[in-house]
C-alpha cells in the first residue's frame, strides 16, 4: 500500500505548527516511552505512529526510551521485543536508545535539590495511612507528621534510604505540594520508594527507585523533548509534570499534550490484562495470533503498512471511543487484496472422482497468481482424475440461489474445467463421502458448448499433488464488544476464537515461507505460521476473511 503524501492534520500537529511559526521551537523532538513490562499492543502502535510520524514529517527526531522504574515487573525480553516491534512497524529511533534508568543518578540529584529547597520530605506513613491522609475529591488531605521536618534531617534520611537503611514500605520521599489541591496527584505525591529489587539495566546499584511522575518529566527534559505526547489519563498529572520541572534546575520544559487512547472492540488493551491471558494460558503467549499485540498481529498476518494505515485512519483526538474491529480488518484486507498472491486451499475436503478422465494422467495448467497484477507471475496447477472440493460447496439439492455444486448440476473448478455431479457415494450413516462427476473437456477457459448452465466457480485441489495443511481459523478473542467493562473479563473469552482444521493446499504452497500471505480463493487471507510451519508441516493462520462478516452478522 503506497503511503499517501497527504497526512491528515490533528490538534497536536496544529500546536506544533504554531510553536514552529512563533519560534518557540526550531525543531521537533518527540519520544515513545514504553515500560518494558509486556509486549507492545495496537494501542502502542497508535502512539508509535504518532510520535515517530511527527518526527518524520517535521524532520525532527523521536527517541525510544524505556520507562524502566519498576524493576520487579520488567525484564530484558520485553526490552528486546519492543525494539523489534518498533523496527518492524517501520520506524527507527535516533541512537542511542534511552532508558530512564540512565538518569537514576541525575534523578537522585534533583530529588536532593527538592529536599534542599524544602520541597520534599521523607514520610513514614504506611500505605494505608497514606491513603487515609490523602483525603478524597470531596475531602482535603491531612499533613503527614514529618511534612515540616528540616531539609538537613530529610537529606540524612534520604541518604539512609539510598544506603539501604530502611525496609520496603517503611518510608518514602514525597514532594511537598498541596494536601488540599483539587488534583489528588498534587497532594504530596511519592517520588521515591524503597525497593530491594534487581534491575535489568542497573543491577543491584539501587534500592530506591523514582516514581513514574517524577522520572518522566525529567527524562523528557534531559533529552530535550519538545512535545511530550501521552494519553488522556495523564491529564491531571500534567500539573505535577510542570510543578517538578518548575522547581528543579533544568533549562528545558517540554509541553505535555494528551490524546485519547485507542480502544478496540472485542479485545482488551491493558498490559496487565494481556499478561493475565498469557499467564492463565487462555492464549499461547504474547504473540498468539488472537492477541492485539504487535507480535500477535504480525503472526496473524498483519503487515506494518496495514497497521500504519489503521493509525492514520483512526486519527488523533481527545475523544475517548472504542474503534470497531472491522476498521482494523479493512486495513489489512485492503493491503492484502493488492499484494497477496492467490492460491487454493480446501479446509474441509470432499473427494471428487472424475469418472471420464484418464486414470493416471496429470495436466499442469498455467494460472496467474493475481487477477489484476501480472507482476506477481504465474504458477502451475495440476489437474487429475481425483480432486478435492470443500464440503460446503456441495449439496444434494438446492434452489437456484445456491451457486455451487448440486447433484445433476455443473460448476466450474476455478482455473480449470466445468464438472457435473452425477452421483453421490455415502457411508453407512448417510454422509456424503465422495462425488462421482464428469468433466467437460472443451471447457478450459470456455463455456459449455451445449448450453449447460454453470452455477458458479468453486475452489479445489488435485489429490495426488496436494499437500496436507493445518488451518488455524481465528476469530475475535472475546464474545462481548467491551470485555474490559465486564466484572471478570476472563468469563467472556470466545470459546470459538480458534478453530483448527486439517485440509489440503495446492502443491505450489509446499514451500510457503514463514509469514508469507496468500489469498486462499473464496476462503480468506492466510499466512504461513512463522513458528509452526515448515516444509514437512504446513500451518496457515487466518488473517482475515474476504468480507466483513461481522457487519453481515449484526
Ligand atoms: P497499558 O495501560 O496497556 O499497560 P501503558 O500506558 O502502561 O499501557 P506504556 O508502556 O507506559 O504502557 O505506554 C507507552 C506509551 O504508549 C505511552 O506514551 C502511552 O501513553 C502509550 N499508550 C499505551 N496504551 C495506549 C493506547 N491504548 N492508545 C494509545 N497510546 C497508548
Ligand atoms: Mg505506563
Automatic annotation (TrEMBL):
Where in this protein would one find the motif 'KMSKS' region, according to its record?
Answer: 268-272
Q: Where is this motif: 'HIGH' region?
A: 34-44
Q: Where is the Glutamyl/glutaminyl-tRNA synthetase class Ib anti-codon binding domain?
A: 340-439
Q: Which GO terms describe its biological process?
A: glutaminyl-tRNA aminoacylation; glutamyl-tRNA aminoacylation
Query: EC number(s) on record?
Result: 6.1.1.18
Q: Which SUPFAM superfamilies does this one have? A: Nucleotidylyl transferase (SSF52374), Ribosomal protein L25-like (SSF50715)
**Enzyme class, first EC level, given as a word:** ligase
Q: Which UniProt keywords apply?
A: Aminoacyl-tRNA synthetase, ATP-binding, Cytoplasm, Ligase, Nucleotide-binding, Protein biosynthesis
Catalytic activity reported: tRNA(Gln) + L-glutamine + ATP = L-glutaminyl-tRNA(Gln) + AMP + diphosphate
Annotated binding of L-glutamine, by residue: 67, 212
For this UniProt entry, what's an example GO CC term? cytosol
Q: Where in the cell is it found?
A: Cytoplasm
Q: Where is the Glutamyl/glutaminyl-tRNA synthetase class Ib catalytic domain?
A: 28-337
At which positions is ATP bound? 35-37, 41-47, 231, 261-262, 269-271
Residue stretches making up the tRNA synthetases class I (E and Q) anti-codon binding domain: 457-529
Q: Which InterPro entries match?
A: aa-tRNA-synth_I_CS, Gln-tRNA-synth, Gln/Glu-tRNA_Ligase, Gln_tRNA_ligase_bac, Glu/Gln-tRNA-synth, Glu/Gln-tRNA-synth_Ib_cat-dom, Glu/Gln-tRNA-synth_Ib_codon-bd, Rbsml_bL25/Gln-tRNA_synth_N
One MF term from GO for this chain?
glutamine-tRNA ligase activity
In terms of PROSITE patterns, this protein maps to: AA_TRNA_LIGASE_I
Q: Which family does it belong to?
A: Belongs to the class-I aminoacyl-tRNA synthetase family.
**What is the protein's quaternary organization?**
Monomer.
Entries under PANTHER family matching the protein: GLUTAMATE--TRNA LIGASE, GLUTAMINE-TRNA LIGASE
Q: By what name is this protein known? A: Glutamine--tRNA ligase
Q: Which organism is it from?
A: Alkalimonas amylolytica
Amino acid at each position: 500500500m503506497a503511503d499517501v503524501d497527504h497526512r491528515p492534520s490533528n490538534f497536536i500537529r496544529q500546536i506544533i505548527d504554531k510553536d514552529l511559526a512563533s519560534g518557540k521551537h526550531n525543531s521537533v523532538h518527540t519520544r515513545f516511552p514504553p515500560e518494558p513490562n509486556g509486549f507492545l499492543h495496537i494501542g502502542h502502535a497508535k502512539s508509535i505512529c504518532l510520535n515517530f510520524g511527527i518526527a518524520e514529517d517535521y524532520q525532527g527526531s523521536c527517541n525510544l526510551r524505556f520507562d524502566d522504574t519498576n524493576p520487579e515487573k520488567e525484564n530484558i525480553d520485553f526490552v528486546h521485543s519492543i525494539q523489534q516491534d518498533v523496527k518492524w512497524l517501520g520506524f527507527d529511533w535516533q541512537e542511542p536508545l534511552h532508558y530512564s534508568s540512565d538518569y537514576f543518578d541525575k534523578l537522585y540529584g534533583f530529588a536532593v535539590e527538592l529536599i534542599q529547597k524544602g520541597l520534599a520530605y521523607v514520610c513514614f506513613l504506611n500505605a494505608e495511612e497514606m491513603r487515609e491522609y490523602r483525603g478524597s475529591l470531596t475531602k482535603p488531605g491531612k499533613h503527614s507528621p514529618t511534612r515540616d521536618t528540616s531539609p538537613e534531617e530529610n537529606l540524612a534520611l534520604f541518604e539512609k534510604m539510598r544506603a539501604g537503611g530502611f525496609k520496603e514500605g517503611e518510608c518514602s520521599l514525597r514532594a511537598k505540594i498541596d494536601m488540599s489541591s483539587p488534583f489528588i496527584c498534587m497532594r504530596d505525591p511519592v517520588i521515591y520508594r524503597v525497593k530491594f529489587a534487581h534491575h535489568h539495566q542497573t543491577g543491584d546499584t539501587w534500592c530506591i527507585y523514582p516514581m513514574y511522575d517524577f522520572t518522566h518529566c525529567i527524562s523528557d527534559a534531559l533529552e530535550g523533548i519538545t512535545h511530550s505526547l501521552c494519553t488522556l489519563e495523564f491529564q491531571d498529572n500534567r500539573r505535577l509534570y510542570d510543578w517538578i520541572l518548575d522547581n528543579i534546575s533544568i533549562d528545558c520544559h517540554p509541553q505535555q499534550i494528551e490524546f485519547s487512547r485507542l480502544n478496540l472492540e472485542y479485545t482488551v488493551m491493558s498490559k496487565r490484562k494481556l499478561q493475565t491471558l498469557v499467564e492463565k494460558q487462555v492464549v499461547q503467549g504474547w504473540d498468539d495470533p488472537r492477541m492485539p499485540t504487535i507480535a500477535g498481529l504480525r503472526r496473524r498476518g498483519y503487515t506494518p503498512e496495514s497497521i500504519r494505515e489503521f493509525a492514520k485512519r483512526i486519527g488523533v483526538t481527545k475523544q475517548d471511543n472504542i474503534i470497531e474491529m472491522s476498521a482494523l480488518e479493512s486495513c489489512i484486507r485492503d493491503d492484502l487484496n493488492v499484494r497477496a498472491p492467490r492460491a487454493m486451499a480446501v479446509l474441509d475436503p470432499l473427494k471428487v472422482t472424475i469418472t471420464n478422465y484418464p486414470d493416471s494422467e496429470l495436466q499442469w495448467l498455467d494460472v496467474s497468481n493475481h487477477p489484476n497484477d501480472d507482476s506477481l507471475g504465474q504458477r502451475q496447477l495440476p489437474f487429475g482424475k481425483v480432486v478435492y472440493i470443500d464440503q460446503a460447496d456441495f449439496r444434494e439439492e438446492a434452489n437456484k440461489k445456491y451457486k455451487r455444486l448440486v447433484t445433476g448440476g455443473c460448476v466450474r473448478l476455478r482455473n480449470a474445467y466445468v464438472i457435473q455431479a452425477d452421483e453421490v457415494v455415502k457411508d453407512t450413516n448417510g454422509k456424503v463421502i465422495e462425488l462421482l462427476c464428469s468433466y467437460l473437456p472443451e471447457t478450459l477457459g470456455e463455456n459449455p458448448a451445449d448450453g449447460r448452465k454453470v452455477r458458479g466457480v468453486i475452489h479445489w485441489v488435485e489429490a495426488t499433488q496436494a499437500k496436507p495443511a493445518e488451518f488455524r481459523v481465528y476469530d475475535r478473542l472475546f464474545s462481548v464488544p467491551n470485555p474490559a467493562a465486564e466484572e471478570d473479563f476472563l468469563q467472556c473469552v470466545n470459546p470459538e476464537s480458534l478453530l483448527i482444521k486439517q485440509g489440503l493446499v495446492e502443491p505450489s504452497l509446499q514451500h510457503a515461507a514463514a509469514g508469507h500471505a496468500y489469498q486462499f480463493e473464496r476462503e480468506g487471507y492466510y499466512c504461513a505460521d512463522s513458528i509452526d510451519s515448515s516444509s514437512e508441516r504446513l500451518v496457515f493462520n487466518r488473517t482475515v476473511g474476504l468480507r466483513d462478516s461481522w457487519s453481515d452478522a449484526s
